[in-house]
Amino acid sequence: MLIKSKVFRPQSDPRLKAGDEAERQMAFLLDRRFEERDDVFLLHDLRIQKGKHFFQIDHLVVTRYGIALIESKSIHSKVSITRHDERREHWSREFRGRNEGIPSPVRQVQEQARQLQEYLRENAEQILGKMLGLLQKGFGYCPFDTYVGVSTSAVFSLSRGTPLPEHVFKADEVAPEIDRLLKAREKHGSFLNLNPLTAMPWEMSRDEALAAARFLMRHHTPLVPAAAPETAAPPATDVGTAPAPVVPATPQVGSLCPACGAKPLAVAAAGPVKANGSRDRYLACLGNRDGSCDWKTPFEPPRVAEAPAAYAVADTPAPPAEAEAPAPPGRSESKYFCFDCRVAIPKEVARFCWDRKERFGGKAYCRSCQARFQGRRQASA
Length: 381
Hints:
Elements: E1 2-4, H1 14-34, E2 41-50, E3 53-63, E4 66-73, E5 78-83, E6 89-95, E7 98-102, H2 105-122, H3 124-132, E8 144-150, E9 155-158, E10 168-170, H4 171-192, H5 206-218, E11 265-270, E12 280-285, E13 296-298, E14 336-337, E15 344-345, H6 347-354, H7 357-360, H8 367-370, H9 374-380
Parallel strand pairs: 1-2, 4-8, 5-9, 8-10
Antiparallel strand pairs: 2-3, 3-4, 5-6, 6-7, 11-12, 12-13, 14-15
């Protein structure tokens, strides 16, 4: 089951573009293998805050018998690996005709697994303890399997006596290896059930695995890119001049959810009804409806379009039943908003409502919300 996908944005840097392509390929291979299973949960591009720092995981597979972390690497040339001892393993690759050292992706994904295990152990009571109302064993003994998925075109060059690290696989080998290990653990657990004196391996229920995946999804902190400036800033003349602060882009109605990146945002009302008949409004992901995403934030409604005093016409006759609001122009710099859903509307649509005060009460509505006044229109006709 796919819990979170990654939103890919256009990249101009060749290396970033190649990295996105590697992640896209790995996500496709994992989704194809596990997306239709209801006991395996996939999260791509997960970024979690732990203390003052963040750790990011390319691909995460949550199962009943353990959690797998996959680090995607776009390596299409020759990769050299030299292991000096158990603690030191040096990686390098060819780039534009010369060798260059690169960080060990094995150590990288192992560090991600360490931080994830600590994070889940600190919050185990929220995930496992509240599922069954009992104290659970937690994630201290949960298997955290790590994989490095490199491009299928990569060629390994190993120094004498250096085997290929057991965590390194070609991209198309990762999903089958996870599936093989999952079946082995499931079979081993079933076999041990026949002997009640044998210690059982670590395991959690399907609901607990889903709760863990959704917990991580709720605590995902996306790295919001800075808004593109309208004009290029002039170069700084002073060496000590501090760079301009990065301003994150503000989510808007209709844009993709910054958490799941799969569904659009809409304005929703929630909470108790207030004295004036209104309720609190939120800008929320449409995934709130089916529980696939819990992202929402309080929504501050913009200025509502109301009829100007000089434009309020009380004696304007109601239009015939077939009358409709004029279609908004393709590029409208509107400063008016629907009274109900708060989406921007052109001035022509607002004026259409103002001309029909008996039907719309002097408020302006978008064309979709105008349909709610169909009965009033027929009665006045």
